[in-house]
Amino acid sequence: MATFSAITSVIFAPSLKPSLSNNVIAERTSNLKMAIGGWRKNRFPSLKTNRFCVSCSAKPETVQKVCEIVRRQLALPAETELTSESKFSALGADSLDTVEIVMSLEEEFGIGVEEENSQNITTVQEAADLIEKLVEKKAA
Amino acid sequence: MFSFVSKRLSLMMMTKVCCFQRNFSSALPPLVPVKLPSKMETHFWYVLPDEVKSESLLSQYSELLSPREKKNLYHMQGDQFKKSALLARVLVRTTIARYQTNCQVNPRSLKFKKTIYGKPEVDWENGDKWCPPPLHFNISHTSSLVACGVTVNVPIGIDVEEKQRRLKNKILAFAKRYFSPDEVKLLTAISDPEIQRQELIKLWTLKEAYVKAVGRGFSAAPFNTFTIRARVVKMGGFHHFDTQHSEASEIVVESSDDPENLTRNWQFALLDLAGSHYAAICIEKENSAGGEAGVPMRLTVWKTIPFVEDERVSGTGAVVPISGLIKQL
User: Fold this and answer.
1) B72·A90 Cβ contact <8 A
2) In chain A, which residues have their Cβ closer than 8 Å to the Cβ of B75?
3) ipTM of the complex model
4) What PANTHER family does the record tag this protein with (chain B) (predicted)?
5) Chains A, B: CB contacts under 8 A, how many?
6) CATH assignment at residue A124
7) Catalytic residue flag (residue A94)
């Protein structure tokens, strides 16, 4: 990841937003690929799979709680399958739903989510991981 | 001269190929072309999913999607939601294709990409300088309405929301979390909870439309760093508005965070659409050096079923201006 950041900051320094935190890199990867045009696929390491390797250990209770909140917000019928990999957008969440989910999660876990991060919560797992990170930070 | 000839030839060939493909790849009729909006105009197209009942038509629609779009659709849960998601892709593809009056474009062949900030745009990939128009678009949809706004030369953002939308969270708690202090003040002053809810939803659509028009993502313009409000503008001179009163309300945005945006002029319209939705439109005024105050947004609205029919509804009961300076065409 460090190498990747170095490459992109060299090439894009003037125009790239400085907010290339770990959370954002994988999101931006595909955008950057398209924006550059000339890059070949194999130039970029595949980051998406190991984006959250440091925190793919979110407690099952956390994931469960997130699922409950998502299910309630989206009024999902009982038969709708909801797993940690479920994407909010695929469940029918629009932007208003997403911010409501974030707000409910903040209240439930006693944390505050920055706008930057809330934009990047797209699955149940991502939400759970971020929550645990924030809870830990708060406890520290 | 020869390069001109060869360009013409390749353009003609491409036209032929496009038409050839279209006639043989599906039983859909050819798209009816549409004239681009002029520089000062906004076009707004919407589809009501409930009016699209034919299964065979829906199946033909799905053939227009790219592999990635098909895959996304496949993973979606909920029939209503899936249908409106399909119609959103079909609406944007067919609408953009219809504006290409110089060369007939197959809506299926359009490619999309995202800007570095994640805003979708058309990927006019080929080297042929057939000069695609400086067309801007933005889409928004709920499970019961799908919309696409189009402008030329200036960015556009739209948002649609069901009028009956209820929040799961408490209204003021939500506003305090996400809106600016001035907006919270305004909402707090409303005593009727139903009116308060409606005003919140209207404000939400306006703020979404603004962020989408700016095109830098939610985090570049956090909702609580800008205030959107209506201010009364005295009508005078030669502008005709869609209002009986001598005063019209103009919607303005004030940013506490980003001085750069303060110097640009963003124009808003808020509509009651089809009796069921609030629709907010935000475009950048072309003349950003102070721009003339009180110039209305020239707006044409169509209700459509792609490949089947268009109905111009601007000026009818289907489009009721709520605020913003609007001139319906």
Assistant:
1) yes
2) 87, 90
3) 0.81
4) 4'-PHOSPHOPANTETHEINYL TRANSFERASE SUPERFAMILY-RELATED, PHOSPHOPANTETHEINE TRANSFERASE
5) 71
6) 1.10.1200.10
7) yes
